[in-house]
Write a sequence for this structure.
């Protein structure tokens, strides 16, 4: 076993362990936080639940590592820190600067001294992350507008809707900062990279989320929650920051996605399809439940637990087969998670008032006796958990399965020796 | 392409170094060594010069086995005009003068 193979295997084990570690930490923390010592059975049940969520992450991390190793890692013949640093930084370069990343990487191979290699790589990495030639005037205007928008958001929410202040300041600050960064890094301000459908869906979903959040806080600034019910903020600071991060991050990806995500046609199409199907299925099931069909009025939790992983598994696998590529499947899963998450939050916030009026309970589990505003926090956290934490790694597994299936099919269809050109990594 | 203001001392040094043998293709690390500039300074200068049409770039056609092809640079026509203007202009600050002096002392690699 040569050094490269050893490094690949060790790296695979390390990333799997790193992906599983947070779940083990949660298990330990829950055992310690229990008021009374848990029985062996309760500990085992808890471990099984965390394993159900953690195992897909461990497997997905291993698959991503293997794919990365095939494309990039194997080229970095050994554990060459400077080369890895520069490769990671060069991956962030805008498309029109890509050649310069390769140029700096090629020069690094000629630098003999180890300390000098680190200096060369660090300097080049800084250039790659912040390349020159951005539109400084436009960046200055964007930065000024961002600061003005932040001040305006603070003043407006302070005067009209103080409950919205943490969310508004975080969201406007993030969007303004990201917009300024985007303008500063691009030489020309172009149209949205991933196409009008994704950009439009992302913009519409974020606008819908902001509008719905504002409406919730206007109508239900505080709400009763818990057992027995206690009055609490509808949008506590932690949830407000999580929602702002989700919306700003989603908007950023929908408008200026990285190269690997934007450039794949099949990935975009399957991702949008899965995202729209997720949101449409959510609304459809909600309406069926409200009509009293088939005992569905127990809430949407079952849908959230089972449908997103299944749709992402199938969508990513289908994209990987169509594009004959693992990366295509990953792109589809990523788009489905980003756009699906935004659309499901909007759908949740739009549907929840109907549930509250008609059934007197929450949309998540039809629980009664708590305030309408609880739906806002439910929409944010449950969407993040079920899509980001649960369905996304299943999508990665789907992408790997699709690629493996495409490879088997190509192997059967193509004569020996012609396989290499038909499949991408 | 004419410029309305004088380039920085480091950019001047790079342009003058490239102008010493205008038809020779140079590469980034060689220029870093020759001028004593760090990669973090050299590459932004090269990128800006290329953006302004002052620098021509190409990839090495026949790289030796075991190393990737290099990105090579030389001045374009407007770049040479700028170099002539800079060479004829009044003395530059000490840093650039030192860099330009190093540029004259160091040997060059001939282009491909």
């Amino acid at each position: 076993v040569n050094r490269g193979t050893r490094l690949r295997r060790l790296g695979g084990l390390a990333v799997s362990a790193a992906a599983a570690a947070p779940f083990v930490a949660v298990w330990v923390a829950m055992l310690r936080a229990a008021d009374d010592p848990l029985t062996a059975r309760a500990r085992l049940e808890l471990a099984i639940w965390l394993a159900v969520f953690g195992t897909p992450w461990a497997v997905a991390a291993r698959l991503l590592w293997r794919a990365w190793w095939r494309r990039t890692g194997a080229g970095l013949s050994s554990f060459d820190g400077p080369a890895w640093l520069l490769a990671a930084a060069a991956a962030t370069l805008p498309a029109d600067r890509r050649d310069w990343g390769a140029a700096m990487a090629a020069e690094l191979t000629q630098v003999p001294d180890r300390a000098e290699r680190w200096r060369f790589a660090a300097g080049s990495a800084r250039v790659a992350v912040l390349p020159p030639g951005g539109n400084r005037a436009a960046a200055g205007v964007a930065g000024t507008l961002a600061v003005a928008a932040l001040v305006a958001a603070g003043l407006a929410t302070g005067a009209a809707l103080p409950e919205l202040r943490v969310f508004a300041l975080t969201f406007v600050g993030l969007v303004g900062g990201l917009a300024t960064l985007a303008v500063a890094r691009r030489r020309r301000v172009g149209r949205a990279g991933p196409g009008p459908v994704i950009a439009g869906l992302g913009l519409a979903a974020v606008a819908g989320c902001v509008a719905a959040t504002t409406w919730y806080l206007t109508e239900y600034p505080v709400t009763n929650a818990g057992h027995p019910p206690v009055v609490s903020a509808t949008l506590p600071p932690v949830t407000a920051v999580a929602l702002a991060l989700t919306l700003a991050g989603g908007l950023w990806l929908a408008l200026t996605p990285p190269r690997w995500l934007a450039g794949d046609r099949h990935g975009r199409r399957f991702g949008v399809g899965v995202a729209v199907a997720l949101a449409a299925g959510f609304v459809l099931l909600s309406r069926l439940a409200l009509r009293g069909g088939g005992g569905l009025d127990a809430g949407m939790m079952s849908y959230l637990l089972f449908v997103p992983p299944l749709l992402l598994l199938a969508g990513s696998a289908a994209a990987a087969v169509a594009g004959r590529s693992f990366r295509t499947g990953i792109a589809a899963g990523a788009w489905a998670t980003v756009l699906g998450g935004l659309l499901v939050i909007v759908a949740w916030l739009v549907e929840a008032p109907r549930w509250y009026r008609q059934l007197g309970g929450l949309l998540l589990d039809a629980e009664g006796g708590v305030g309408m505003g609880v739906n806002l926090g439910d929409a944010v956290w449950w969407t993040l958990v079920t899509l980001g934490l649960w369905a996304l790694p299943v999508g990665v597994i789907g992408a790997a399965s699709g690629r493996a299936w495409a490879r088997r099919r190509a192997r059967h269809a193509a004569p020996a020796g012609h396989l290499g050109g038909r499949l991408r990594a | 392409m004419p410029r309305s203001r004088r380039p920085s001392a480091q950019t001047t040094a790079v342009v003058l170094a490239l102008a010493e043998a205008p038809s020779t293709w140079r590469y980034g690390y060689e220029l870093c060594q020759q001028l004593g500039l760090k990669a973090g300074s050299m590459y932004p200068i090269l990128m800006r010069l290329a953006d302004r049409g002052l620098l021509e770039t190409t990839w090495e056609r026949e790289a030796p086995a075991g190393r990737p092809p290099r990105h090579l640079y030389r001045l374009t026509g407007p770049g040479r005009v700028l170099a002539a203007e800079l060479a004829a202009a009044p003395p530059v600050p000490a840093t650039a003068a030192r860099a330009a002096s190093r540029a004259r002392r160091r040997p060059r690699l001939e282009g491909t």
In short: The two ends of chain B are 26 Å apart (CA to CA).
